[in-house]
Model the fold of this input.
Amino acid sequence: MKFCVSVLAAFLLSITSPSLAYAALNNPPEITADSTSDGTTVTVTGSVTDEDLSKVDLVAFAGAATPTTISINPDGTFSLTIDVAPFVDEVVIKAIDAQGQIDLFTIYL
Done:
């Protein structure tokens, strides 16, 4: 019986410990964005949220073109204008945080 009580006490302590509460905050990054296009360029403005924005990489992909790194402002906002080749029908924004968690945001042209 003492063993069961000890195991139960250890379990309750572990689920209420501050370190476990911090670990629960490990959510993937989240992108929100809007875009405008004139047929040859796309302007994307938006924001990304994460527990630690300083460790989030944000990249844009448009067809087979070289991926474009996006700078994130301290408040999580970003803006980007990229050239798009003919017949490219989407731009994908990808956020990766320090834990390797990913969010994708696809803009259909």
